[in-house]
Amino acid sequence: MSANAQVHALEDHHDDHGHHKQTFVTKYIFSTDHKMISKQYMITGIFMGVIGILMSLFFRLQLAWPDHTFTIYEIFLGKWGTDGVMDPSVYLALVTIHGTIMVFFVLTAGLSGTFSNLLIPLQIGARDMASGFLNMVSYWLFFLSSFIMLCSLFVEAGPASSGWTIYPPLSALPQAIPGSGAGMTLWLISIAIFIASSLLGSLNFIVTVINMRTKGMSMTRLPLTVWAFFITAMIGLVSFPVLFSAALMLIMDRSFGTSFFLSDIYIAGEVLHHQGGSPVLFEHLFWFLGHPEVYIVILPAMGIVSEIMATNSRKPIFGYRAMVASLLAIAFLSTIVWGHHMFISGMNPFLGSVFTFTTLLIAIPSAVKSFNWITTLWRGKLQMNVAMLWCIAFVSTFITGGLTGIIMGDSALDINIHDTYFIVAHFHLVMGISAAYGFLAGVYHWFPKMFEGRMMNKNLGYIHFWVTSIGAYGIFFPMHFVGLAGLPRRYYSNTSFPYFDDLADINVVMTIFAIFTIAVQVVFLYNFIHSMFYGKMAPKNPWNATTLEWTAEVQHIHGNWDGPIPHVYRWAYDYSKLNKDETDFVIPGQDFIPQNVPLQDNEDELDH
Amino acid sequence: MTAFLVILVIVLFGVSVWQMNRIFQLAKTKPSGHSEIASDKDNNTQGYLMLGFLAFIYILTIVSFWLWYDTLLPESGSEHGSDIDNLMLISMILIFFVGIITQAVLHYFAFIYRGNKVKRATFYADNDKLEFIWTIIPVIVLAGLIIYGLFTWTDIMNVDKDDDPLIVELYAQQFNWKARYGGNDNTLGNANVRLIKGINQLGVDPADPNGQDDKIVTELHLPVGRKVLIKMRSQDVLHSAYMPHFRAQMNCVPGMITQFAFTPTVTTEEMRQNDYIVEKVANINAIRKNKSEELVAKGEEPLETYEFDYFVLCNKICGISHYNMQMKIIVESEEDYKAWLAEQPTLGEQLSKETK
C-alpha cells in the first residue's frame, strides 16, 4: 500500500518536469511514446494491407478469367505478366506473399501492435510502456522486416512462392521452384526480424500490464481489451520462438547443407546428399506457432469487439468473468491443437485422434464468447456508430467461419476437404475477415484518441461498412462450394481438369464481389487520411465510455495525463447502472460511470 | 473483359466520389448533436439495414445452393466414403441449424434494440445459469461429434492386414504421378531415390527379388470391391494424393512412406451412368461447347468433349505446374483389371531389355 502510494507520489512528481523539447526526429520517427508508436504500427500495417489486398485482386482476376489477358498484369508484374498473361510462378508468389503479409504484417503487427501500444498504457492508467526504448526498437525491427519483405518482391527469380507455410523441401530447394532462391532467403530473414520485433513487443506488453496498473486497477477490473492484448502477448511469447527455430533450421538446410527437414531427394536429375531429415518435423514446428498465430490475430479483435460492443450497447459486457476465462481457455488450447493442420501429413493416425479432440474443445469457449456477445446486445440501447457495426459484423463472420471449423477440425472430414477452397473460405471468414473487422472497429472507435480529437466521417464509414460486409460474404460464402466440389487451393487455374469447368461461374461471382470490396477500401483510405487533418473535433469522451483513455488529455503529451494519474474504483463496464431505488442512473442523467469515479452512496457494490 | 473491368472500376469510383460529395453536403446541414456520432435517425436506419443484412445472408445461402448444388461431389465411390458423407451431413445440418438461429438472433437484436433517446438499457452483467447452459450444450453436442468422428477416423486409418489388400505404390514427382503394382506376390520391392537409374525411374532395388515382378504404370487401375492399400512416396517435394471421389487423401513425403487404404465400390462405368454425374457432365459439356464456339470463332482448336473419369490430383503446393499434376484412375471389374495388368511389362523384363 505505502509502496504504491510512493510510486504514485513519484509519478505525480514526474509532471513537474515539464515537457522535453522534441525535434521532428524524436517526435515522429524515433519516438519512444506509445501513442506515436501505435500510429506508426497502424500506418505501416495499413500500407502493407493495401499491398496484400491488391495482390489478392490480381489472383482473383486470374482465377475468374484464366483465359483472358489483362494489361494490368504487365504493368504491375512486369516480366511475369508479359502480354497480359499471368505466369504460373508469379501466381504462387502472389498467394504466398498475400498470406504472409496479411497474417503477419497486417493482422499481427498492424492489429496487436497498434492497439496494444495505444490502449495498454491508456487503459491501465500508465504514463507509457514499461520500456519506451524497447518499444521503439520493436517498431523499427517491424519496419525493417516489412522493408525486407517488400524488397524480396524485386528479386530476379521472384519472391518466395511455396505458400505462406513455406513447407520444405519446396522452400528449401531453388531447383524445385524459382522463388526458393534469394526470394526465400529474404523471406526468412524478414520473418526472423519480425519475430524479434514481436517478442520485444510482447515482453513489453506483459510487463506493462503486470507492473504498471494504476491504483485500484486490479486484474479483474481490467477492460477486456487489455486482457486480450495481455493474453495475446503471452501466446506470442510461447510460440514465436518455435517458428524462429524452424526458420533457423530451414536456413541451415538451405545454406549450410544440414538435413533437418530433407531426406531422399532426387531433383533436376540428381540425388541430393541430404539424408534423415523430415518435412513433417517442419510442419510440427511451423504449426506450433502457426496455429496459436491465428489466435494471436483474433484475440485482440475479440477484446476490441467486447469493449466497443459494451460501450455502444450502453450495457456491461455480459459475463465478464466468463469472457476472461474463455480468453484464457482459448489461449491454452491454442497451443495444443496444431496437429489439426497435419491430419493427413503422414503422422501417426492416433495423433490425429488426439488433435481432433483438443481442436473441437476450442469450440466451447468460442461458443461461450459468441453467446455472451449476443446477450450483450439484448435489451441494450444500441448506438449504431460505425465501430459498433463492425463489431456486430465481427460476431456474424466469427460464427459463420467458426462453425465450419467444426468440420475442418474433425479428422475424418478433413480427409476430403483438406487444402481445398473450403479451408480458404473457413479461415478467411473466421480469422482474416473477423480480425480485419476488429481492426476497423478499433480504428473508427479510437480514431479521436489517436489523432488528438479528430473523428472519422460517419457516413463514409457507413458506406465502407456495408459494401465491405456484403462483399466479404459474397466472396467467401460461395467459396465453400468450390471447396466441397473438391478443388484444391493454390491452383493457378483449374482448366486442366474439365471436371471443374462448372466452377467457372462461382469464381466470377467471387471475383466481382472482391472487386467491389477492394474498391470500397478507397473510401476508407480517403476517410482515414482526410479525417487525420480535417476531421471534425470530437468531445473529450465522444462515445461516453467508462475506460481511462478518455480521461487522458486530448492533445498528445508525453505521460498521457497532465495532472496525476487517475485512480480506479470500479470495473470498466458500469453502463446504465441504476441507483439503489432504481429511479435513475447512479449519476443522474448520465448512463455511464467512468472507472475513476469512486463508489457512490446511492449504488450497490456488485461482484462481477 | 478488361474493358468491362476498367469501366466497372471507373463507374464505381465515380459513384463513390458522388456519394462522398452528397454526404458532405448532408453533413453540413445536421441540426443537433455531434455530426460524426450516431444520431437516433442513424440508429434507426442502421437497425433496419441490419435486418436487411440478415435477409441478404439467407438469400445468399439459398441462391448459392440453388445455383451451385450441382457442383458438389457425387456420392462416394468408396466404402468408407459413405461414412464420411454421413458424418458430413450430420455436421452440416448441425452447423446450418446453429448458424441460421444465431445469425437471426444477432441481427434481430441489433435491429430491435437500436437505441433512441427514450430507451434505457438493462444493466445485466451476468447470469451463471444461462452461461452454464450454453457451455454445457456445446460440450454435449461436440462430445457426440467427436466420438462419431473418432470412430470413423480410426476405421478409415487402421488397416487390417488380414484383409489381404491389394498393394499399390503411388509415386509422386514434379509434376506427375506413377503407380507401381506389387506383381504376382503383391509385395513391393524395396526402393530408394539413390537407385534411380535409366529406365528404373522409381529407384526400385534391382537386387530385391520382390521388385522383379513389380509393374510400373501411368494410369491407376483398381478392381472394384477389393481393398487397396496405397503406399505413397515422393521423390522431390511434398505432394498430396487427393482422390476426392473416393474421399481419400494422404500427403506424399520425401524420405518416408505414407499410406491410405480404401475399397472402391463403384466402377468408372457405373459412375458414368450415375444420374447426378450424367447431369453434371452434360452441364460441363454445355459450358465447354460455348467455350469451343468462342475458340473456333477466334480460329483456335475447340475443346474436347468431356467424359467422367476418376482422378488423383496433387493437393499440396509443389511447384509451378502444381495445378496440372494428375493421373487417371479406372475402377473396373476384377477380370478387366487382371487382363489389363497382364499386359503391363514387369520391371524385371524392362530392366533386362535395357541391359541387352
Could you characterize what this model shows?
The complex is a heterodimer of chains A (608) and B (356). Chain A has a single domain (32-264, 271-551), classed as Up-down Bundle (Cytochrome C Oxidase, Chain A), CATH 1.20.210. In chain A, 61% of the residues lie in helices and 1% in strands. Chain A has helices at residues 2-14, 24-29, 34-64, 71-77, 88-124, 132-151, 182-211, 224-255, 279-313, 320-334, 349-377, 386-408, 411-417, 421-450, 458-484, 504-534; strands spanning 266-267, 270-271. In chain A, strand 1 (266-267) and strand 2 form a beta hairpin. In chain A, helix 8 (224-255) packs antiparallel against helix 9 (279-313). The two termini of chain A are 24 Å apart. The model of chain A is unreliable at 1-18 (pLDDT under 50). Chain B is α+β, with helices and mostly antiparallel strands and 356 residues long. Chain B is built from nine helices and ten strands. Chain B has helices spanning 2-28, 40-68, 79-112, 128-157, 209-212, 268-273, 275-297, 334-343, 347-355; strands at residues 166-173, 176-181, 215-217, 220-223, 228-234, 239-243, 248-252, 258-262, 310-314, 326-332. Chain B has a five-stranded mixed β-sheet, with no helix packed on it. In chain B, a hairpin with a 4-residue loop joins strand 6 and strand 7. The model of chain B has no long low-confidence stretch (mean pLDDT 91). Chains A and B meet through helix 5, strand 1, helix 9, helix 10 and helix 11 of A and helix 1, helix 2, helix 3, helix 4 and strand 7 of B. Chain A: It is found in: Membrane. Chain A: Keywords: Electron transport, Heme, Iron, Membrane, Metal-binding, Respiratory chain, Transmembrane, Transmembrane helix, Transport. Chain A: Belongs to the heme-copper respiratory oxidase family. Chain A: This is Cbb3-type cytochrome c oxidase subunit I.
